[in-house]
Each structure stands twice: as structure tokens, then as C-alpha cells.
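Suppose a colleague, Dr. K., hands you the sequence of a protein chain of 285 amino acids and asks what its three-dimensional shape might be. Before reaching for any lab equipment, you can write down a predicted structure in C-alpha cell form. Begin with the sequence itself:
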Amino acid sequence: MAVIGLGAMGSRIARRLLESPYEVVVWNRDETKAAALVELGARFAATPALAAQGADVVVVMVSDPQALRDVTEGSEGVAAGTTASTTLIQMSTVSPESVSRLASTLPAGAGLLDAPVLGSLAEAEAGGLTIFAGGTRSAVARCTPLLSALGSVLHVGPLGAGTAAKLVANATLFGTLGVLGEAVALARGLDLSPESTFSILAATPLGAQAERRRTAIESGEYPVRFTLSLARKDADLIIAAASACGADLRLAAAARSWLAEAESEGGDRDYAEMLARIVATGSRA
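The predicted structure, expressed as C-alpha cells, is then:
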């Protein structure tokens, strides 16, 4: 099997698969990111096409729709190395249109799942991701043993449904952070103590998130799990998908604006930094 894309998530996925009974070929634009995996037994391929040649399954985990096109299309892309016996598992967070385009590039008979994940670095390392799988029942069943090394597989519908599910899930993540940040900002503006604020939040639907984020909110330190640049990209995909289907997502648009403002101060920081920006508004007099 092959893994294309060795960023924060892709490298962890490749490592998990290496710990399972799979021979793994890897490719990444920056070859240095493959060094640790090669030491563990992976084989590095010079191009995505060469990585895909001879692989029964190819996993792709890249940053955005353009990156997906770059690694799958053209003479050196994944599609050029696949055959009717190959199954491609597309795990990146992209648009529904990206999945349709990818399907059109593959040879007749090749399998395709869109299977983006919910979870971050710790979940990827522990094999605790939630995998939203879109595709035929037979294709999902065939790939479930492999995907189970990465987490729990949830078959959400036909091809494209996995991508749709990931956008829905991320809309809830960004919206929840926005509501939590604004609730804390309001509490600060109304001079409620931190203890009272979090006691109040504990009695609301935000209780679990408030408890989880309290230390970061009070310390102002947000360890990087999911970068602002990627989160804002996902928010853009959500807004675009909503526009295409006619859904009026005003809260998602507001969350996107908070992410974009926070990103302007550094996109490599954690996406929860949007909380710091929102909460600070409650301290202004």
C-alpha cells in the first residue's frame, strides 16, 4: 500500500500502518519528512505515480483541493500509477467537487473512497480517529480492516458523503468555539468571576467544551493540534458548500470571520486561538 502526503496527519497515518502488517510505500513533496518512516521500514517513491504502482490501496492525505489535484493528476500523479485493481482512499478535507474531479481521473474499475477524519494528532497517533467513509458498501467493507488501524469507520453514504460529513462536523467545531468564546467574553464584560463563568457554562450544552478549553482560555496558551490556516481553509469549504446547496449558514460565516482574523496574526498557530481573540473583546472597556 502507499501513503501520499506526510504532513502532521499523513505521517502519523503512515506510522500507524507501518505498525500493522502492511508494507508501506510513501511519497511527500519534501522528501526529508519521509526519513523517519523509511527508518521504520517504509519505502520512498520518487513520484506519486510510482508510489501507486503495484499498490492495492493508496491513501492520500494532503492539505487542500489544489494539493489533491497536484498529487493525483498529470503524468506523475497518483491516477497515472493506478489500475483497475487499485483502491484510492482520499482522506484529505476537500470539497465535494474535488471528489468528483478525482473520480473522473481514475481508470475504469479503480475503487475510490472519500474518507476524511475527525480527530487530531493525538487521535491519529493512538488510532482513535473517526473516519467518515463515503463509497459503496462493498468498497467500505473491503477497506475497513485497514482503516480500523487508524480509528472507527462510519459509513455515511455513497461517494462524496464522507467529504460532506467532514464539512458538517467541522461546522460544529468552529461554531462551538465561537459560541464558547463569545459566552466567556460576555461574562467578562459583565464582571462575572471565572469560577462563576465556568460554573454557569457547566450547566449548559457548552459544558464539556468549556471544561476542556478552560485551561487554555485562562492561560492563553493553545498547543498546536490543528492550524489556523487549515481551519480557515475548511471554513471556506463549508461556506462554499453551503452556497452551492442554498443553505444559509450565518453562524458558520461568523466563525469563519473569527478564524480569518486570528489567522492574520499567524496561521501556524492552533485554531483554538480564535478563542483568545474573541474572549479579549470582553476585557475592553
